[in-house]
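Record type: ASSEMBLY
Status: queued
Input:
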Amino acid sequence: MKFKKILPQFLTLLFIVLIFGFFTMNAQENMDTRGIQFGFGFLKQEASFDIQFSLIDYDGSRSYARAYLVGLLNTLLVSVIGIILSTILGVIIGVARLSPNYLINKTASFYVEFFRNVPLLLQIFFWYFAALRALPMPEDAPLIFGSSYMTIKGLYTIAPVWNNFDVFFGALIIAMIIIFFFNKFAKRKQEEEGKQYPKFLISLGIFIIIPALTFIVGGVDLSWSFPELKQLAKTSFTFEGGLGIPPELIALTLALTLYTATFIAENVRAGIQGIGKGQKEAAASIGLTPSQVLKLVVMPQALRIIIPPTTNQYLNLTKNSSLAAAIAYPDLVLVFAGTAMMQTGRAIEIVGITMATYLTISLSISAFMNWYNKRIAIQEK
Amino acid sequence: MFKYLKQLTSLVAMVAVLFTFTTETFAAKKSKTLKNTQKKGFVRCGVSQGLPGFSNADAAGNWTGVDVDVCRAVAAAVLGDANKVKFTPLSAKERFTALTSGEIDILSRNTTWTLSRDADIGLTFVGVNFYDGQGFMVRKDSGITSTSQFKNGISACTNIGTTTELNMRDFFNSKGISYTPVAFEKADEVVAAYDAGRCDTYTTDKSGLAAQRTKMTNPDDHIVLPETISKEPLGPVVRQGDAVWEDIVRWSLNTMIEAEEYGVTSANADMMKTSENPQIKRLVGAEGEMGAAFGLDNEWNLRIIKQVGNYGESYKRNIADTGILPDRGPNELWTKGGILYVPPSR
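Status: finished
Output:
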């Protein structure tokens, strides 16, 4: 009986191992006959190409491994910003689609139908080239908010210049730990004695006061560096100093956000509409205020419906960010699976590493969202 | 009856085997690529996604260019028809993988011959069909007339997957200029971004700059700076490990260049058979056994010259007459002040 159960599984496993073995051997043989070596030693070699935009210290004298890290961080940067912005926009649009106001409702519907039905690559090209054509040259750019310039070469804005940043950062972490324990304490008090603290206000206070103290006692100092116009040639200008955000990042973030937000909006709408009217009426009848109804009754149940499909959208956004290569945003695909692959010729190794990286990112997002979903799931009794 | 039939079939089979043995020469048997090409009936050639003058497809899908002509020459030599070529447009990033994985048999796609490419990744360069060098293009109204006027903070558009990115770094580093590289995957986007004003300069091989300039909104607004910052010998590439195929491609290219040197053109090739000069006679297959070593017949080189023309004809048709680079510069014959010099066909 047990044997019968195990045998098919064993055969399946054997089959998979054989197929993988066949592909590996086949690749090995072909590489041997064509004189291609296999190995990861190239990662330590000097990359000798520069990258437009990097979150960490990098130049061409660093290794391919470092270039990989630059690409990975750029991919994560655009994914994280995209996920946060598309979630905010998605929730707003999703709620707006349920609005009784005709104008708001129809605008939201039009937005969703338009942006989710146009191919993403086209949208990326549109935002990039439309923005490039529409934005002024650096010398013609007007000053925005007294601090920034939006130009064809990117957004130039003020950059913070820190003194003793590590002290400030340490204070931030301490503040967050205190907030965590305070919230635990407040929750226990409420359960035991029914006493309610203004949790949000106190948390916010801690979050502001403790880091602020470091300016007085910790020797922390903050000043701002402003972008300044610099002439390169008769008609050619750029900005120096401050913080420069490349137009490629802006266009990519914009396109990914607007595209993914439409799907999240639909998830939010479905989640809210999935809650029976009776639930809200019952909650109101026991004396909960409208905001409490939303917070304690509607949202916990709606989230249950919203989270799983939204996880998919987060994964999609991360994977779609690889379209960056088309508009010169130096993400993992452009830097590593592009330039580095070309310079080294190590197609199999590099594509393998890149695939494993995307898989790891996706599985991490998935694991986190599953954990969160489990936490907010309604415990059936 | 049945017995005889069986004997008859084995006899036919034996004759067939013998026949293949005698017709199929040693070389043809040694070159897997040649055999496969003759079996398929077309040469599989990797080209660019569109670079006027080098490899470019018109609206009807006909490919033209000096790189294209190398593949056509090989097709004329091994299949007898210069049109029996299947072109595969490849990005700079895909090109070597396509060749090493066996998807194409010749890569003729403005590819720079470098040590690391030749030695490292299973490729063999067979020669040079265009001597190029990397340069810079700028907007005319910027007033820049030389790279010595470049200043810190300049942004340079280019495309990835080429030696360009490395040369650019070497150049700016040696001059001590800080720069922003903006590298796109495809050349079309580079042109669009530079044209819109995203970058102060556009850098790639000078032949590429000249060709891409024709695609700008207003070509006259841009100039190519005189400085050349690198050596870019462009040439066809084959897979490592098939020496006979490598020789066929190499000597197809050499034949075109040598034909120009001896004044043999597509128009007069047939008449040259009765030439007094033995070197010319060898070039048109009227003397010696020049094809045997490749497993080809004796008129393989005559077919190249008749169907594709010599190097000068190909250059004139594709690069000079289209206004891309009317001046041949280093790509002139060594006898006329250039550096085109090939070993003799003998």
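Annotation: Chain B touches chain A through 51 residues (CB under 8 Å).
Annotation: The domain at 134-230 of chain B is CATH 3.40.190.10 (D-Maltodextrin-Binding Protein; domain 2).
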